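stage 2 :: seqdesign
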């Protein structure tokens, strides 16, 4: 065999293990395997799970988590948390509803004020984090408590109850509902507007993380903020932008909540921030930051959607749902840590 043949043979022989190592190092690999396994389980045990109408229901459930899982995963890759994300969704819906009802009677004005509010909360979290150097757990826990109290207190002070008034008869309601809460039927498959928002955020988030300088900054500040700062990365600004992304996701989901049901309960959203974090961790994000995948967070949200609806279709006891999520969280965290260690060791 000639020298070129030997080199080609060696390259092919070495290429396969190298490609396999790259595949095994992908942060979303574990969530992909888990998603396939969950799908197969419910496909076998629950006949309604495979119906086209059921797929639409699963996608809708996944999208309401996925819209927030995308910015939350980016934030976690950047090394931070946001415990206020769940109630911020409710704040977005309440602000839009009450501004529209009390001041303008035009729903688009309320929606824009709501966007400014959620971005302000996100900016506040990022600013506080940079100025005080406190852990994001403490900063966003404080924001969580303040928003929880404000949601309830302001709503009761203005409307006299714990829910907002209906805005279904106001100008702009139909167009807002079309943008945030409409439904398209394709061959019997009902696709909610949240699915399109989810896919759009997923594409933008993946592109930003993997194809832009800002994406490199996100990985850098999550891996080692001091080292990133030493080479000129604007650490505080990067993290503030990530918090603004969480604010934008909360606005989108909050508008969907409002324009789907016309009114909003002020106590909603508490606890959902943990579900967003679970989706991100199942998708490959490490608690310590610097590692993860936006696509993985989408798979984590899809797993959530399949499990939450698959349990119903299989007629299982829904009380076990959170037990399953907890088990998935622990397994995903262990798998993610193992994959990262293997990737850091490199070929052997």
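stage 2 :: out
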């Amino acid at each position: 065999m000639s020298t070129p043949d030997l080199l080609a043979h060696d390259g092919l022989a070495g290429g396969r293990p190298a490609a396999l190592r790259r595949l095994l190092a992908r942060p979303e690999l574990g969530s992909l395997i888990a998603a396939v396994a969950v799908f197969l389980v419910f496909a076998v045990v629950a006949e309604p799970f495979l119906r086209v109408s059921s797929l639409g229901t699963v996608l809708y459930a996944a999208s309401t988590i996925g819209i927030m899982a995308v910015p939350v995963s980016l934030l976690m890759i950047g090394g931070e948390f946001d415990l206020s994300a769940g109630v911020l969704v409710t704040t977005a819906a309440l602000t839009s509803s009450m501004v529209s009802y009390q001041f303008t009677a035009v729903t688009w004005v309320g929606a824009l004020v709501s966007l400014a509010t959620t971005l302000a909360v996100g900016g506040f979290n990022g600013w506080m984090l940079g100025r005080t150097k406190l852990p994001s757990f403490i900063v966003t826990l404080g924001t969580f408590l303040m928003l929880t109290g404000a949601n309830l207190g302001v709503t009761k002070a203005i409307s006299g109850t714990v829910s907002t008034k209906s805005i279904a008869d106001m100008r702009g309601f139909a167009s807002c509902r079309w943008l945030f809460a409409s439904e398209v039927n394709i061959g019997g498959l009902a696709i909610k507007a949240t699915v399109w928002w989810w896919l759009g955020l997923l594409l933008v988030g993946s592109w930003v993380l993997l194809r832009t300088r800002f994406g490199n900054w996100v990985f850098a500040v999550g891996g080692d903020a001091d080292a990133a700062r030493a080479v000129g990365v604007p650490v505080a600004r990067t993290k503030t932008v990530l918090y603004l992304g969480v604010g934008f996701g909360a606005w989108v989901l909050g508008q969907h909540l409002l324009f789907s049901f016309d009114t909003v309960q002020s106590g909603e959203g508490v606890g959902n921030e943990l579900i967003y974090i679970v989706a991100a961790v199942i998708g490959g994000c490490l608690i310590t930051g610097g590692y993860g995948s936006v696509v993985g967070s989408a798979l984590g949200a899809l797993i959530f959607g399949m499990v939450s609806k698959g349990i119903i279709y299989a007629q299982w006891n829904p009380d076990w749902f959170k037990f399953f999520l907890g088990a998935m969280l622990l397994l995903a965290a262990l798998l993610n840590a193992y994959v990262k260690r293997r990737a850091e060791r490199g070929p052997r």
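stage 3 :: structure notes
- The CA atoms of residues 53 and 189 lie 6 Å apart.
- DSSP finds 14 helices and two strands in the chain.
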